[in-house]
Amino acid sequence: MLNVILWRAALLLLLAALLWGAILLGRRFVERQRRAALEAPALAADRRNEAGAASGPVRILLFSSAECQQCHRLQKPALRQVQAARGELVSVIEVDAPTEPQLTARYRVLTLPTTVVLDGQGKAQAINYGFAPAGRLLAQIDSVLAQQHC
């Protein structure tokens, strides 16, 4: 009986160690992707926002798709809050990820939604894989605006 308990405990410890290792490797992979995406060349200013208006000093690329429920139910309302809070300082550009493979690859989009915060020169300053709440986006925007005023 004691042998069975020890065997099960050892198996559980092994599984826990494997799971921990997989999580650690996954986090490293995502961080490498984020660093590479932040080093991408600046995006030309010819991209327009959803309304077709010219870009503000901070642009947010929203990578989504027609099927992405989290994009439509969570991310878009959060971005509307951001635009209401920062007005003309921020423009949102929606990118249909399936039809824009080059742009998706450029920013190493791993999941939908993904938001990329660009400065006035089109350089990526922050990348959020998955849902990004309005508070996080506002902090990232404020950081970009503070850098531009220095």
What is the number of helical segments per DSSP (H or I, 4+ residues)? Answer: 4
Mean pLDDT comes to 90
Query: Which range best describes the helical content: under 10%, 10-25%, 25-40%, 40-55%, 55-70% or over 70%?
Result: 40-55%
Q: What is the β-strand count? A: 4
Residue runs with pLDDT of under 50 for 5 or more positions: 48-54
- The N- to C-terminal Cα distance equals 70 Å
**What structural category characterises the helix and strand content?**
alpha+beta
Largest sheet: 4 strands, mixed
Radius of gyration: 20 Å
**Strand/helix succession:** HEHEHEEH
Shape: elongated
Strand content: 15-25%
Please state how the strands of the largest beta sheet are arranged side by side.
2-1-3-4
Describe the structure.
With 150 residues, this protein is α+β, with helices and mostly antiparallel strands. It has helices at 2-38, 69-86, 101-106, 134-148, and strands at 58-64, 90-96, 114-118, 124-129. Strands 2-1-3-4 form a 4-stranded mixed beta sheet, sandwiched between helices. A hairpin with a 5-residue loop joins β3 and β4 (124-129). α2 (69-86) packs across α4. It is elongated. Mean pLDDT is 90; it is low at 48-54.
